[in-house]
């Protein structure tokens, strides 16, 4: 492979959306940020320089980071943040992945504006397992706040309430014509009749799972989280924060006398408030010689897609149930057939006490919290991976993450009386090459809610999922160990569970968390420490010399 060099200068820029101008953090002044393009097998070297007044890190979401854990990016997990005026070079190779991923800031809520696509092309001369598309187009979903998002989250954490919801959803940074002042801020995709387009969908939204649909067009799903899937057609796509989905859009064979909206809006299961507004972009068939500017041709009839209701869990389950690994000779599904360690984690919300001299806006005057196995993860002040590598873990973390729930209860039934959570910076330690099965069970404490769980450093196979409480006596018999979907982020369904398997063959400290930023901020996060193997290529190399210090 070749080496691809990028420079990311983090700096503020003024951006106007929804009738107002705001100063946001950007990479190189661009919003959304620049694309990283690499072929499978290439090395990617990104020099990140921080010109902003905030500490920054960048995460290459979904990149496996085989033996390059120092380049993963989550603040205080694999690195200390890059301070103002400093830089850090992220250096990693893309191995065994093809499709779409994305990069985003991984500290506080800076990812609300710091994000962009990662496009992984097949090796030179290796075709796609589908007909070569005429063009490829990233479609990156985001959320826009009129307020400063650092103020939004710090106010929420102070008072313990839910953070203010966003003011708009966006496609490629643009809210589209259904919002005030935004007709000019509409993403427009011009297509030619009869051609096929590869849409690289990325959900970089902060707090919302999304339904996405294109009027009068179905699409063919071909890849999720940079892994090929068995192709299938869909009218509506469900995409959770942290997930990516490649779809083929087949433009109609003859020029239709119409313009079509592509729209996205939330799939939301909780009892909390959410941004229920709709982003629209335009699919326009290019007439020969036409050159309409921004916006869309108002003279043509306009078709809008019908999106499922915001709480349509069966539409969501129907879509995710269709995803299968390719599992072919060329693209095998290496599902672990045996298991060394089984884990059962509850994921859900809870409460924490309100400090004495404060009024709190959470349930019954408490503060909102979120947990894995009732442990709300407390961020350390130095990086976990550094602490492990230097043998100075005392006072940074403890290797005693509870691998069974602290207080078992009927997870999808009546919630327990005591909803208070415990705090800790606790890790699960895994010997190299441990074959792991993990069942994640949603809890109905403070309402059942879907949680898109993201694992760093690995893809996993989704071998089972269901509603209600996981039944260890009967559910495993139904697991799919042949062609389960392989991905890095999976929605644990509201009032249900998922089972995943992965082989712990990548030494390092690997964060796992809900990719809904509000839940992540409340503590729905934990980390795995995967130890070195015996052979040289089974060990994490020492950190690069420019690794930031805390
Ligand atoms: Cu995309 Cu730890 O995150």
Automatic annotation (TrEMBL):
UniProt record, GO biological process: lignin catabolic process
Record localization: Secreted, Extracellular space, Apoplast
A Gene Ontology term for the protein's cellular component: apoplast
Known catalytic reactions: 4 hydroquinone + O2 = 4 benzosemiquinone + 2 H2O
Origin: domain of life: Eukaryota
Cofactor(s) required, per the database record: Cu cation
Enzyme category, top tier: oxidoreductase
UniProt-recorded Gene Ontology molecular function terms: copper ion binding; hydroquinone:oxygen oxidoreductase activity
Flavoprotein in keyword set: no
Alphabetic keyword roster: Apoplast, Copper, Lignin degradation, Metal-binding, Oxidoreductase, Repeat, Secreted
Cofactor: binding details: Binds 4 Cu cations per monomer.
Protein purpose: Lignin degradation and detoxification of lignin-derived products.
Family: Belongs to the multicopper oxidase family.
Stated name of the protein: Laccase
Phylogenetic classification of the source organism: Eukaryota, Viridiplantae, Streptophyta, Embryophyta, Tracheophyta
Residues of the full protein shown: 160 to 709 of 709
């Amino acid at each position: 492979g070749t080496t691809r060099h990028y420079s990311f200068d983090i700096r503020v820029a003024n951006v106007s959306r929804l009738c107002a101008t705001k100063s946001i953090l950007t990479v190189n002044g661009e919003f959304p940020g620049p694309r990283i393009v690499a072929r499978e097998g290439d090395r990617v070297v990104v020099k990140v320089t921080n010109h902003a007044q905030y500490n920054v890190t960048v995460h290459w979401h979904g990149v496996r980071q085989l033996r390059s854990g120092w380049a993963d990016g989550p603040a205080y997990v694999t690195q200390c943040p890059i301070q103002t005026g400093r830089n850090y070079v992220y250096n990693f190779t893309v191995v065994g992945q093809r499709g779409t991923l994305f990069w985003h800031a991984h500290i506080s809520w800076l990812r609300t504006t710091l994000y962009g696509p990662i496009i992984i092309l097949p090796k030179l001369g290796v075709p796609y397992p589908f007909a070569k598309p005429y063009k490829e187009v990233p479609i990156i979903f985001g959320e826009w706040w009129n307020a400063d998002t650092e103020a939004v989250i710090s106010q929420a954490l102070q008072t313990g309430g839910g953070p203010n919801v966003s003011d708009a959803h966006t496609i490629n940074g643009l809210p589209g014509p259904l919002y005030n002042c935004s007709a000019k801020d509409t993403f427009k995709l011009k297509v030619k009749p009869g051609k096929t387009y590869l849409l690289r969908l990325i959900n970089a939204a902060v707090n919302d799972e999304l339904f996405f649909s294109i009027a009068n067009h179905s699409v063919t799903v071909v890849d999720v989280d940079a892994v090929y899937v068995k192709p299938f057609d869909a009218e509506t796509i469900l995409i959770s924060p942290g997930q990516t989905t490649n779809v083929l859009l087949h433009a109609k064979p003859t020029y239709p006398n119409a313009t079509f909206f592509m729209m996205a809006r939330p799939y939301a299961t909780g009892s909390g408030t959410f941004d229920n507004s709709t982003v629209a972009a335009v699919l326009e068939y290019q007439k020969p010689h036409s050159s309409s500017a921004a916006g869309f041709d108002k003279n043509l009839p306009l078709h809008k897609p019908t999106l499922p209701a915001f709480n349509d869990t069966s539409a969501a389950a129907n879509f995710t149930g269709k995803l299968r690994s390719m599992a072919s000779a060329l693209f095998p599904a290496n599902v672990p057939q045996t298991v060394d360690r089984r884990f059962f984690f509850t994921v859900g919300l809870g409460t924490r006490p309100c400090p004495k001299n404060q009024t709190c806006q959470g349930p019954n005057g408490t503060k909102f919290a979120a947990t894995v196995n009732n442990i709300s993860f407390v961020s350390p002040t130095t990086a976990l991976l550094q602490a492990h590598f230097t043998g100075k873990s005392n006072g940074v973390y403890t290797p005693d993450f509870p691998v069974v729930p602290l207080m078992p209860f009927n997870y999808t039934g009546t919630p327990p009386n005591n909803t208070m959570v415990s705090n800790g910076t606790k890790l699960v330690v895994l010997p190299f090459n441990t074959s792991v099965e993990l069942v994640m069970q949603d809890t109905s404490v403070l309402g059942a809610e879907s949680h898109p769980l993201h694992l760093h450093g690995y893809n996993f196979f989704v071998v089972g999922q269901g509603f209600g409480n996981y039944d260890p006596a009967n559910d495993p018999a139904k697991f799919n160990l042949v062609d389960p979907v392989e991905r890095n982020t999976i929605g644990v369904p509201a009032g249900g569970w998922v089972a995943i398997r992965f082989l712990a063959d990548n030494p390092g400290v690997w964060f796992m968390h809900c990719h809904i930023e509000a839940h992540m901020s409340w503590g729905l996060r934990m980390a795995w420490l995967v130890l070195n193997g015996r052979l040289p290529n089974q060990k994490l190399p020492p950190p690069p010399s420019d690794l930031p210090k805390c």
